[in-house]
Amino acid sequence: MASTSDIRNGLCIKYNNDIYKIIEFLHVKPGKGPAFVRTKLKSLTNGKVLDNTFSAGHKIDEVRVETHTFQYLYAEGDQFHFMNNESFEQITLDKKVLDAPDLLKEGTNVMIQINAETEAPLSVDMPASIVLEVTYAEPGVKGNTATNATKPATVETGATVNVPLFINEGDKIKIDTASGNYMERVKE
C-alpha cells in the first residue's frame, strides 16, 4: 500500500477494479481545509482518461510493474508485434494500448511496462521524439509566410504531420511522440 505522497507520473495503481496509470498530478494545499492531490488517470485496459482527487494521506493500491526494452517488429492489422531485447521473446499488443501507433517505425526501441503479478503488458512508453522521413509534402508557396504557416506532410509510417512550408519530400524531421507535432528538421 502506498499513500498520496508516493504519487508520481507513470505510477500504476489499482482503482475502481481497474488498473490506471497516472499521467498528471498536482499536490494542492489550500489556505483553508485539508491538502489533496488532483490527478489525471488513464485506464490501461480501455484507454479512457479520467480526473480524480485523492485526499492527503489516502491509501492507494500500487501495482508492481517491471519495465523492459522491446523492439517494434511489424504491424498486422490492429496487432503490433514486439521483441524483448534481452530474452528475444515476442509479444503482440493491440493498437489501442499504444499512444501513438502511427508514429512507430520498424526497429524502434520502446519501453513496455509489464504487471509483475500477471505478466500482462500494461503500457508502452515510446521515445520522447522520433526521426522520420517525409514521403509526401506539397511544395510551399513563396511569400505565404506572414504567419507561422504550416502544411500537411506524410511521413514514412503513413502518419500526417503539420510542418513548416520549407519542409520538402525526402527531408528528415523530428516529431514529438507525446503530441504528434513537428519539432525540427534533422540534417544528416
Automatic annotation (TrEMBL):
Residues 130-185 form the Elongation factor P C-terminal domain. Keywords: Cytoplasm, Elongation factor, Protein biosynthesis. GO terms for molecular function: translation elongation factor activity. The lineage of its organism: Bacteria, Pseudomonadati, Bacteroidota, Flavobacteriia, Flavobacteriales. SUPFAM superfamilies: Nucleic acid-binding proteins (SSF50249), Translation proteins SH3-like domain (SSF50104). SMART domains: EFP (SM01185), Elong-fact-P_C (SM00841). It comes from Flavobacterium cheniae. This is Elongation factor P. It holds the Pfam family Elong-fact-P_C. Residues 67-122 form the Translation elongation factor P/YeiP central domain. Involved in peptide bond synthesis. Stimulates efficient translation and peptide-bond synthesis on native or reconstituted 70S ribosomes in vitro. Probably functions indirectly by altering the affinity of the ribosome for aminoacyl-tRNA, thus increasing their reactivity as acceptors for peptidyl transferase.
